[in-house]
Amino acid sequence: MKPFLVEQTEITPKVVFDPAQNTFLVQGKSLPEDVKDFYAPLLKWVDDYILQPNEATHIVFDFEYFNTASSKMILILLSKFREMHRNGFPVSVTWKYPQLDAEMEEAGEEFADLLAIPFEMISKPAL
């Protein structure tokens, strides 16, 4: 399966979903003008990946910030991985957040509570 790669911009995150390298990363800011337009190709890619996933999948979310519309798309994305986990393919998530950013920490905790898949919370030191 071809990797799904998106370069980071000022308003969109870097996305690297590469099953051959077992790399699944979303990093940066997510403030696209049209969140559905930005996330739709990634969600479609994940739908295809779920049909033949790796033995285990570890996803890293390393957000500086995301808006409310993006949070809904992140939840949809994570829900797809939760279904894969429920179907017997181990999935784990690492949620990185800026050390002093209580909102980003709470967002990760809320996703963890909603999804009931292994979540690791990592506080990143302030620069």
Q: How many DSSP helices? A: 3
Largest sheet: 6 strands, mixed
Q: How large, in whole angstroms, is the Cα Rg? A: 14 Å
Counting helices, strands and paired strands, the structural category is: alpha/beta
How would you write the strand order of the largest sheet? 1-2-3-4-5-6
Amino- and carboxy-terminal Cα gap: 37 Å
Order of helices and strands: EEEHEHEHE
Beta-strand segment tally? 6
Give the helix proportion (percent range).
25-40%
Please tell me the total number of domains.
1
Mean pLDDT figure: 95
Shape: globular
Beta fraction: 25-35%
Unreliable sequence segments:
none
Please describe the structure with a list of short key phrases separated by commas or semicolons.
127 residues; alpha/beta; 6-stranded mixed sheet; globular
Characterize the structure shown.
A hairpin with a 7-residue loop joins strand 1 (4-6) and strand 2. Helix content is 39%, strand content 31%. It has one domain (23-98, 110-124). With 127 residues, the chain is an alpha/beta fold. It has a six-stranded mixed sheet with strand order 1-2-3-4-5-6, covered by helices on one side. The protein is globular. It has helices at 35-51, 68-86, 102-115; strands at 4-6, 14-18, 23-30, 57-66, 91-98, 119-124.
